[in-house]
Design brief:
Elements lengths: L2 E2 L4 E5 L3 H13 L4 E5 L2 H10 L4 E5 L7 H9 L9 E5 L4 H10 L3 E4 L5 H10 L2 E2 L1
Parallel strand pairs: 1-7, 2-3, 2-4, 4-5, 5-6
Helix pairs in contact: 2-3, 3-4
């Protein structure tokens, strides 16, 4: 089912608050008005349990709970298994890519990424009505 940009629910999980703010600002400027942020995997899980996100971007290296563990735990929540999850990391080794896929990530985005790459990933994984 197609959604209007302003109705797409995005979760951005990153411990870097500058990155959070920049990406959130970009999403808003491109018409995606519903983006939520979390600073670690534990916060992400708590938000996923209470909300209906259409897509999740999650950094792999974070304090408290890393992205790999958070992805695996999100995939165990019965009604949240099909949410597209995009793992993001500056470490794009074969092992990291393998770990992300095994945890349940749908896609991977290496860092540094062009800011518009986030919008492209939303458009690839969520049916958006421009």
């Amino acid at each position: 089912m197609e959604k209007k940009k302003e109705d797409v629910q995005i979760l951005l999980v990153d411990d870097n608050q500058s990155s959070q703010m920049a990406v959130k600002k970009l999403f808003t400027s491109k018409g995606f008005k519903n983006s939520t942020t979390a600073s670690n995997g534990l916060e992400a899980i708590q938000l996923v349990e209470k909300n209906n996100f259409d897509i999740i971007f999650i950094d792999i290296c974070m304090p408290i709970m890393d992205g790999i563990e958070a992805i695996a735990r999100i995939r165990k929540i019965p009604d949240k298994k099909k949410i597209p999850i995009i793992a993001i990391s500056a470490m794009d080794t074969v092992k990291v890519l393998h770990d992300c896929k095994n945890a349940g990530a749908n896609d991977f985005m290496g860092l540094p990424a062009h800011i518009l790459d986030y919008v492209k990933k939303v458009q690839q994984h969520v049916e958006v009505n421009d």
